[in-house]
Amino acid sequence: MSAVAILRSGLLLRARRLIAPVRVAICLRPQSDRKRLMSSTDLLQIILASRPDGRPAPANFRLERAPLPTPGEGEVLLKVLYLSLDPYMRGRMSAAKSYAAPTEIGAVMEGGTVAEVLESRHPGFAAGDIVLSFSGWQSHALAKGDQLRKLDPAAAPVTTALGVLGMPGFTAYAGLLTIGQPKKGETVVVAAASGPVGSAVGQIARIKGARAVGIAGGPEKCAVVRDTFGFDAVIDHKAPDFAAQLAAACPDGIDVYFENVGGKVWDAVFPLLNTFARIPVCGLVSQYNASGDFEGPDMLPVLMRQVLSKSLLIRGFIQREFAAQRPDFEREMAAWIASGAVKYKEDIVEGLDQAPDAFIRLLEGGNFGKLIVKL
Ligand SMILES: NC(=O)c1ccc[n+]([C@@H]2O[C@H](COP(=O)([O-])OP(=O)(O)OC[C@H]3O[C@@H](n4cnc5c(N)ncnc54)[C@H](OP(=O)(O)O)[C@@H]3O)[C@@H](O)[C@H]2O)c1
């Protein structure tokens, strides 16, 4: 089924326990078989079958079926409604040392979800409650109450808990305001600007009085970044003269570069950085599928010389380190969405079995907005 892009703006009224049942492995089915498969009341899970070498392939994933689990004391049984697909999941597929442990081979792929409580043996939850959970790429899950946050569907579309009002929106807020600290009149540059992190970065920068320059892949994405998200300028990184266009769009240099992608975008940004520029290093998505050592000349001496001579601040971060700012984020972001100062875009794909393909495309720019799987 084709991806459905939903553009919503303005109006805002305001661990899983992995069971180990007998599993039946199922090949990822053609679309015609999916309805029968997905209408099952069994538990369906996408398992990490093997670790990718470079670009992930469908064979790295396996769809399995198992009986529905029964909640124990203090647990709830969840039916997953929406699954968030995020670039960090590529890191979990790899055994390389990182800030989080890899997903084990044979385990369910990890991921944030919005779910409905089907059955509760926890006093804080009742059947029908809608919750934010981290139940992963599966149709149902058992969860303990303290792993869940109740959502109010009347306050905001529940999918926003996975995007603009969830982890990606918070990443933009905390990384930009804490490390980037944009000031009135400064130039803020961000790539992956049509995605949930980049689009929020540019819009928050503008709220703070800065000039937002976005970088995106292709004319359709660039049009949304400029016309819907209101960036002051946008450059297509696929253009042959991308670096020259970026320089022309930043006549006063770059004061904040919110790093989402690395690679040739970083190469074009680096010479334009002003003295005292701040660079929150949020992600390097252009490198996530790289295998082996990076090729090319050693640029570290050039980088360090500029760090020194221009007093650059380059600071990596993982959003959870700023968790104390979460209440401020939720209050401010809700108000910005309600006032129309922040808009967002979702890309919703239907069917759990479509998650692997959608995820593979995400790492190559195949998504258009916050990528979510509707189960
Ligand atoms: N540090 C943290 O705590 C944290 C938390 C969340 C996300 N992140 C990072 O934030 C970044 C954005 O995440 P997101 O969820 O908002 O993703 P996203 O924008 O929805 O998707 C990734 C986008 O990256 C762009 N891209 C992919 N390969 C590229 C390349 N070679 N060169 C330039 N652009 C490329 C594509 O956009 P175009 O088609 O426009 O190029 C693609 O759509 C990622 O690096 C992610 O890992 C970090």
Structural features, described:
This protein is α/β, with parallel strands linked by helices and 375 residues long. It folds into 2 domains: 4-164 and 342-374, Quinone Oxidoreductase, Chain A, domain 1; 167-323, Rossmann fold, CATH 3.40.50.720. 25% of the residues lie in helices and 25% in strands. The chain has helices spanning 31-38, 88-92, 167-180, 196-207, 219-227, 242-249, 263-269, 300-309, 326-339, 355-362; strands at 4-8, 24-26, 43-48, 61-66, 75-84, 113-120, 130-133, 140-144, 149-151, 187-191, 211-216, 233-236, 254-258, 273-281, 313-316, 344-350, 370-374. The strands form 3 sheets. Strands 1, 5, 6, 7, 8, 9, 16 and 17 form an 8-stranded mixed beta sheet that branches. Strands 12-11-10-13-14-15 form a 6-stranded parallel beta sheet, sandwiched between helices. Strands 2-4-3 form a 3-stranded antiparallel beta sheet, with no helix packed on it. Helix 5 (219-227) links the parallel strand 11 and strand 12 (233-236). It starts with a strand and ends with a strand. The site of NADP nicotinamide-adenine-dinucleotide phosphate has 32 residues, from helix 3, helix 4 and helix 7.
